[in-house]
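In this section we walk through a basic example: taking a raw amino acid sequence and producing a predicted 3D structure, encoded as discrete structure tokens. The instruction is simple. Fold the sequence below.
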Amino acid sequence: MSIQKHGIGHYLIMLVLALGAIILVYPLYNQLVISLTGSDYITKASGTTIIPYGFTLSTYTTVLAIPKVARGLLNSIFITATGLVINIVFTSMGAYVLTKRDLVGRSFFITMIVITMIFEGGLIPDYFLMRKLHLLNTYWSVILYKAINPYYLIILMRFFDRVPPSLIEAARIDGLSETKILFKIVFPVSVAGIATVSLFYGVFHWNEYFRAMIYLTDEMKYPLQVVLRELLISAEKASFIGSMNFLKVTAAAQLDIKAIKAALIIISIIPILAFYPFVLKYFVKGRLEGSVKE
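The resulting token sequence is shown next.
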């Protein structure tokens, strides 16, 4: 029996979804409140305030003034932006080529790509490869990792398959090269797929820290997530303040370690949250169309 639009089942589902949203959003909201709350109020409320009492932005201004944090933020933006462009260009080119039914060895290439989705070389072969290519301690060691994700490649193949062959043939008759056909004809028709895959790639690069810790030895090249990890593992306030020796001791002493950690978490999340609304209208459509066969 189908659930009526205004029946009890409808409201029950809405209630469950609302509770789920609150459970998921509250931890992030709590960190935001803590980062905006004065240190004296945080101590009294044990860090569980709902409203930012003693509202202050001093925590953010102080944290962003730390050279490691500012540099890490710029590094993450550069790695994410550059990696995203490389991901989309190469994944799209690979997907477009593999949609050609007359491609020699097409089945072999697709089979090899599917195999990589199941079996991966692992960290040690990747490390030796980076060393062989002289990419260790460079941004490219993090940017070029998984320049083409096989799963996202297959998703884009599904979208490119939906482009009418007559449209591509007309463009070819007009004298457009395959590259121009891809970027001027196929891309605009497959906006939903491109946006969805861009979101996946962007989140992947922004949250990357493990391989950056292994491949990068220069602290000036650390992305924000690595810097965040280093600062969050500081168990005592004194050890954290010690890393901010360029600040006045009086200014650093006014900060609370809980507020500092909360501000760092918010700073690391805001950029990716700001990127999400731009692709939100394509996200659901892209995932469904890229995975369901008509």
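Looking at the output, two observations stand out. The radius of gyration is 24 Å. Residues 257-291 form the longest helix (35 residues). In the next section we compare this with other chains.
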